[in-house]
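Troubleshooting entry. The earlier prediction with 2-acetamido-2-deoxy-beta-D-glucopyranose gave an output that would not parse, so I re-checked the input for stray whitespace and re-submitted. Clean input:
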Amino acid sequence: MAGVSLMLVRVVAVACVLAVGAVAQLSPTFYDGSCPSLQSIVRSGMTSAVQKEPRMGASILRLFFHDCFVNGCDASVLLDDSSTLTGEKNAAPNANSLRGYEVIDAIKSRVEAACPGTVSCADILALAARDGVNLLSGPTWAVPLGRRDARTASQAAANSNLPSPTSNAATLVSTFASKGLDSRDLVALSGAHTIGAARCASFRSRVYNDTNINAGFAARRRQICPAQGSDGNLAPLDALSSVKFDNGYFRNVVSQFGLLHSDQELFGAGGGVDSITAQYARNSGAFARDFVTAMIKMGNISPLTGSNGEVRANCRKPN
Ligand code: HEM
Ligand SMILES: *[C@@H]1O[C@H](CO)[C@@H](O)[C@H](O)[C@H]1NC(C)=O
């Protein structure tokens, strides 16, 4: 009797997991019938944005990360503040820092012209992030699609769910674990810092106070980042090649050239991830493969699918 009911519990549990999985299933061919020109529109929008400013590939990639970690990949990060909605753009990790919103707007209006009311802002962002990486010489992959857009945002969740540059390795591991991402995913996704830049405000304490930093590197960064003020001065996250998506980030980190405190936590800080960081520093192919796997996993965080959410007409406001 106990055995039978235990089995019944198992059958029901498996059925529930399958049901949830079926609802949440994204597919790379989702818009093949309804918007065949989607991928080429996104690609051409990203091509001109990156031609104008290579850093934009990085900025859009980060936008996607900050979307997915806050209540899932639902384009909540793109919503503007209004009288009825407090968005995520002014949350601490995002304010004066996240950028690229106009690039997504421009792509969205071309997609709306071609396929009105069909493609979510969340999916456009997922494709644009992939293209940004690839246009800066990174890998490419088929992006699972079929996400829908949130009608709301959460500034509180943006403040609490996004990792801080002062985090230690244990906190980074647990923040990613809470999103279903393991240590390999954490290290691979951190390799996104092979492109783009950080503000002085994000690396000041590292270059003045950390001891696990190359001394000459710290001195050079202090020259762009005074002890007080000039918070917005920029430095490349990868001192070797910040407009090329390669494994330079990991080669920096194993030599104590990590720009953020959180970057350097991935090697030599007792976080238990040193061997993964060292592997990516040696083997750019392993990094590229694991980055793709982890990007797809990150893109699968709690999507709205089916009839949940909506397809926004304007990425900045609910319909
Ligand atoms: C592991 C935890 C992470 C922390 C603590 C972190 C923190 C930061 C910080 C503080 C900046 C600089 C922001 C500024 O100063 O304005 C930054 C930039 C950036 N982050 Fe992360 N990040 C993390 C993971 C990720 C992930 C998973 C991705 C994407 C997959 C990502 C992509 C980027 C990119 C591309 C930039 C440069 C953006 C630009 O130049 O506009 N980061 N990150
Ligand atoms: C460095 O650490 C000291 C002592 O904790 C602190 O007072 C100071 O503000 C820190 N400097 C920076 C730039 O973070």
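This one parsed fine. The pocket of protoporphyrin IX containing FE (ligand 1) is lined by residues 55, 58-59, 61-62, 65, 97, 99, 163-165, 167, 172, 189-190, 192-193, 195-199, 202, 237, 260, 262 (CB under 6 Å).
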